[in-house]
Automatic annotation (TrEMBL):
Gene name tied to this protein: cfaB
Higher taxonomy: Bacteria, Pseudomonadati, Pseudomonadota, Gammaproteobacteria, Pseudomonadales
Annotated protein name in UniProt: C17 cyclopropane fatty acid synthase CfaB
NCBIfam families per UniProt: cyclopro_CfaB (NF040703)
Domain spans labelled DUF7884: 12-75
This protein's record includes keyword S-adenosyl-L-methionine: yes
Keywords (A to Z) from UniProt: Lipid metabolism, Methyltransferase, S-adenosyl-L-methionine, Transferase
Location of the active site: C357
Length: 393
């Protein structure tokens, strides 16, 4: 098998070295920057037709090791997969999402370890795409700018009742309370997030203004009305099948004249099928089980059907590439500490996921959209200014 694989790999002219299970090493291309160490000889046959899922999975399960700069590793993995992998496009998935399955999937990802996330997220532990006003900001600045950008788009003002659906570690909730004097109700499905988020609210003395609960979006009390609703990095967990329900929830919980912001990752494919060449399968298997990315037109259609009016849409794809690059570099710089916080297998998953998603956003495999919607008043008017000028004032 190796006799067939080697010439095929050599033709790709990649800066790659192979190391075999018996210690033998060979350069596959000029000036190798990456070494692929095959530890399990049984893998060689599969490497003839690799996918990103196969390569990523083999690394996670310890069948291969990868040495070299992570960014290069991902690029070379992609090139090998494109050249030798099956052309076959991924098929759209439409999973049933019930509360129990979703709670388990959320716990798997977000309850991993607060200390681990703290290592490489910004100081407010905002776990979503940052906003780079000039492109020169560091991660903390970009996340603060993102929180401000969201609050400005929501035209948040003192006393506003804000619902934060999927509040994470409470960065936005605290920011909205502290900087805009809003009254915030946030929900998450992660117990670990909730614990630390509440501690941080208390540490800032914001308990009177910020209430956080462990709650599924389907269980939000229907007798409440909010002036503004924000959902950041959450709707990726909802699933195609439940998008209409999710949007109806948002629409029913905002008062007439109020605003809803949906910020999240979107598919590049109209039918929302997973990212091709096995990248989507890897993410589903190891990173975000049951995650599903709709196209912007699909979530847009569901928002519109719910009775909300879409008033502004912004793509921040390259902002997410940069955010993920920061996260990945920050984790790479603290691997020794990370090793003491999470099992080796998890660390391998998160390393590949962060660097791989930075690459995926850069290459336009996935996008990020902020969609602002208004619930029109009975006469059809809304409470927005005539232009976006106030966002940049
Ligand atoms: C990527 S994190 C984003 C957190 C936060 N908005 C931020 O930007 O840092 C996704 C959040 O959505 C929450 N979430 C996912 N599915 C949910 C559901 N069904 N109901 C409520 N929250 C959910 C998770 O618990 C998590 O807090």
């Amino acid at each position: 098998m190796l006799a067939t694989l080697l010439p095929t790999l050599r033709e790709l002219d990649l800066p790659l070295r192979l190391k075999l299970w018996d210690g033998k090493e060979m350069d596959i291309g000029p000036a190798p920057s990456v070494t692929l160490e095959i530890k399990d000889p049984n893998l060689v046959a599969q490497l003839a037709h690799p996918s990103l899922d196969l390569l990523g999975g083999a690394y996670v399960e310890g069948q291969i090791d990868l040495h070299g700069p992570l960014e290069e590793i991902i690029r070379i993995g992609d090139e090998i997969t494109r050249a030798l992998g099956d052309e076959g496009d991924s098929v759209p998935t439409r999973e049933a999402h019930d509360k129990a399955t979703d709670a388990e999937a959320i716990s798997y990802h977000y309850d991993l370890s607060n200390a681990f996330y703290q290592l490489w997220l910004d100081r407010d532990m905002v776990y979503s795409c940052g906003y780079f006003e000039t492109g020169t900001e560091d991660l903390d600045q970009a996340q603060q700018a993102k929180l401000r950008h969201l609050c400005r788009k929501l035209r948040l003002k003192p006393g506003d009742r804000l619902l934060d659906v999927g509040c994470g570690w409470g960065g936005l909730a605290r920011f909205a309370a502290r900087e805009y004097d809003a009254d915030v109700f946030g929900i998450t499905l992660s117990r670990e997030q909730l614990k630390l988020a509440r501690e941080r609210v208390a540490a800032e003395g914001l308990e009177g203004q910020v209430r956080l609960e462990l709650m599924d979006y389907r269980d939000l009390p229907q007798n409440e009305q909010f002036d503004k609703i924000v959902s950041v990095g959450m709707f990726e967990h909802v699933g195609h099948a439940n998008l209409p329900l999710y949007c109806r929830q948002l629409a029913s919980l905002v008062r007439p004249g109020g605003l809803v912001m949906n910020h999240g990752i979107t598919s590049r494919y109209i039918d929302g099928r997973p990212v091709s060449h096995g990248a989507g399968e890897f993410i589903d298997r190891y990173v975000f089980p049951h995650g599903e990315l709709p196209h912007v037109t699909e979530i847009g259609a569901c928002i519109s059907e719910s009775g909300l009016e879409i008033v502004d849409v912004e793509s921040l794809r390259l902002h997410y590439a940069r955010t993920l690059q920061f996260w990945s570099e920050r984790l790479e710089a603290r691997l020794d500490e990370a090793q003491r916080m999470v099992p080796e297998r998890a660390l391998r998953i998160w390393r590949i996921y962060l660097a791989g998603c930075a690459y995926g956003f850069r290459r336009n495999w996935i996008n990020l959209h902020q969609i602002l919607a208004s619930k029109p008043l009975p006469d059809g008017s809304h409470e927005l200014p005539w232009s976006r000028a106030d966002l940049y004032a």
